[in-house]
Amino acid sequence: MAFTFFFRDQQVLERLVEHSLPGLAGRSHPRIWDAGVAMGQEPYTLSIMFAERMGHFAFNNLRIDATDVESTGQFAQMIEAGVYPKEELSRLPEGVLDKYFEPNGKPGFFRVIEKIRRRVAYQRHDLLSFHEIGHGYSLVLCKNVLLHFQPPERIEVLRMFHRALAPGGFFATEQTQEMPRELASRFQRVIPDGPLFRKVESVECGSCLLRDGDTIKMGDEEFQVIHTPGHSSDSICLYNPAEGVLFAGDSPLLITSPTGTYEAGFLAALEKLCACDVRRIYFGHGAPVTERCNQRLRDSHRIAAGQPIGHDGAGTQ
Ligand SMILES: C[S@@+](CC[C@H](N)C(=O)[O-])C[C@H]1O[C@@H](n2cnc3c(N)ncnc32)[C@H](O)[C@@H]1O
Is the pTM of this model over 0.90? Predict the structure, then answer.
């Protein structure tokens, strides 16, 4: 059984509620995603804390989407019932038990009152699917979960939370969790001494340094920055997954001759591009490439890495 309890990490939750409240209260249907909730004590704690601080109308429009990977349905049942043994409730802040719990009929058990229960909706979800459950969240909370993941998984899960958040939305985690360096441009720390971050919408070109893995917005489209140290050490490509468009600039991505030598960073960038779905490539000069882009990138990677390509793909440009 996963370890959790009511009002766990209370200080983090207090700061989170304090910072996110103005934004939440200003939305007609404020939504929170609480990920990795175990038996539900955490989303019910959040619900109680917001009930204490929000007006009646705003609170009644609040929805806390609580998720966990647990697959037997046991967590779902417990959260739906909202019934907890009395000994679990012994450490509640003063007054909370009387105000937000009621006897359940079963000796030694109390039930979260309906007003608080109704704000929490549970669904099973595996964070390692890397598919967000929705978008436009004002707040995402994921506490004491990320530590179980490998560093690359943690980065992908955080990218997913970034996508799920509304512009300027908040993300909170446990005190000991660090924001990976790769995501420093996407999440701005809100308080110096706590794990509370704010979504940075997009990188402003021209006024800041672009890093590999950043996302920049141009018009309505988002582009991923891929560092391609080939033509020069600061070369980048911009890839738009939605349209399958790659802006290659001067990066020599289509390699046809095995005579060149390429640095490891460029080979790694080519390998990354091989995993993308590229349907058009625009270079700084010349006509765009609109056919067999994925195959040509894979051939280029093999040629640059000194491997045979094994079919008639060579000499494509
Ligand atoms: C220690 S509990 C944390 C509960 C609560 N967030 C807290 O801070 O008290 C960790 C929870 O993460 C869940 N979890 C682990 N891997 C997960 C995954 N891949 N996707 C979603 N939840 C996961 C576990 O099932 C467990 O309920």
Answer: no
